[in-house]
Specification:
It contains nine helices and twelve strands. The protein has about 375 residues and is α+β, with helices and mostly antiparallel strands.
């Protein structure tokens, strides 16, 4: 998370931006929002928003006839973007600088650490000793484009031979200072990581290179040459933070590098904690939603079961009423013979088998589903 991520975004629609640029000049909008005039103009071009000319603004002065606006045309692309208030951005920047200053002051006043890079490497940290041993013994084997580097499993150092001694002294000073600040180093997957505030970062020290063109008999080729400019790297890829030499040599930037490392770790930890809180809230929402859905599903299933049972009972009662009607009719007509009596008895037993309140056993219907009256398929041999 970058510092500006702490500043609330304001949603700007294409229509709103059109009204903005025709109500006040780009310079005025740029002062209010954290966006340059050039970027604002490019955004208007991207969204097909016409911009007023200088004559338009002149026409708005008292005594002049105002020019009409150029109407906003159709646009089929994505027409919403976000801006931040410049005042809020500047406020966050001030807070960040204050935080960095507090950390740097604490580091520079910490009597347990040494911020001065020695002229000679003495009593090196075990990480530096191991890297030095590998670099000096195998520097010819481990060479890439003019740089030598330490072996797998050791501290990542990529420098030219002329800068090796200096690089080891600088890294030794940084590592010892970090350890004295209470931070640890671990070996993970053959690489050295620093563990700080619960965060882990791959660390490396590298000399920058430049690409040069070499003209040959058969055309041009290219190669990389070392520049002598050193850089300390925290993390990698998208999350890489880098401190490079400029006019100020590394020997005078140790406290700045330590400050940057601790601030980055603190910031990443705060982001992780906030993310964990958001994830916990989201998981709780999902749990509640799942629980509610399960209750809804059970409620529906229970009602369907109630409906099926009540329907079966009602249908069983219909059968009984029909049987009783059949029996009464036969008696009134003096037609109640033995065969009809058996049929009536059989029908009453089926009604009892079907009725959900009774569900009497029936040997011949034992494989029949009472709900849909389908026969289960069974093997007979």
């Amino acid at each position: 998370m970058e510092e500006l991520d702490y500043v609330k975004d304001i949603q700007i629609t294409r229509e709103k931006l059109y009204e903005m640029v025709w109500s006040e000049q780009l310079s005025s909008i740029s002062q209010k929002y954290y966006i340059s005039e050039n970027t604002l103009q490019k955004k208007c071009t991207e969204l097909h928003i016409p911009l007023p000319s200088i004559r338009y603004w002149i026409s708005l002065k008292p005594g002049n006839k105002p020019q009409e606006k150029i109407p906003l045309g159709e646009f089929s692309g994505y027409s919403t973007f976000y801006l931040k208030l410049r005042e809020e951005v500047e406020s966050v920047k001030v807070l960040v600088q204050q935080h960095l200053l507090r950390i740097k002051t604490e580091i520079e006043n910490d009597t347990n650490i040494n911020l001065k890079v020695p002229d000679r490497l003495t009593n090196p940290d075990p990480l530096i000793a191991a890297a030095k041993d590998g670099l000096y013994k195998d520097k010819i084997m481990n060479k890439e484009e003019g740089l030598i580097h330490s072996n797998y499993g050791k501290l990542a150092i990529y420098v030219s031979p002329n800068n090796l001694a200096r690089a080891l002294r600088i890294m030794d000073t940084i590592i010892k200072a970090l350890k004295n600040r209470g931070h640890n180093f671990i070996n993970k997957n053959g690489s050295t990581y620093i563990s700080i505030f619960g965060q882990q970062y791959w660390i490396s020290f590298k000399e920058k290179e430049k690409r040069v063109v070499v003209k040959g008999k058969y055309g041009e080729t290219s190669k990389y040459e070392s520049t002598g400019i050193l850089s300390f790297r925290l993390g990698e890829s998208y999350h890489l933070k880098e401190w490079s030499e400029g006019k100020t040599p590394f020997e005078e930037k140790i406290s700045t590098i330590l400050t940057g490392i601790e601030y980055q770790a603190w910031k990443d930890r705060e982001e992780r904690i906030e993310n964990e809180k958001r994830w916990a809230i989201q998981r709780e929402k999902e749990r509640i939603a799942k629980e509610l859905q399960e209750r809804k599903d059970k409620e529906l299933a229970d009602f369907k079961e109630l409906f099926k049972k009540s329907k079966r009972h009602e249908e069983a009662e219909i059968i009984r009423r029909y049987i009783q009607k059949l029996e009464d009719s036969a008696i009134s007509k003096n037609e109640l013979n033995e065969e009809l009596k058996q049929k009536i008895e059989w029908a009453r037993k089926k009604a009892d088998w079907y009725d959900p309140f009774i569900e009497a056993n029936d040997e011949l219907l034992i494989d029949v589903n009472r709900e849909d009256l389908t026969m289960a398929k069974r093997g007979y041999w």
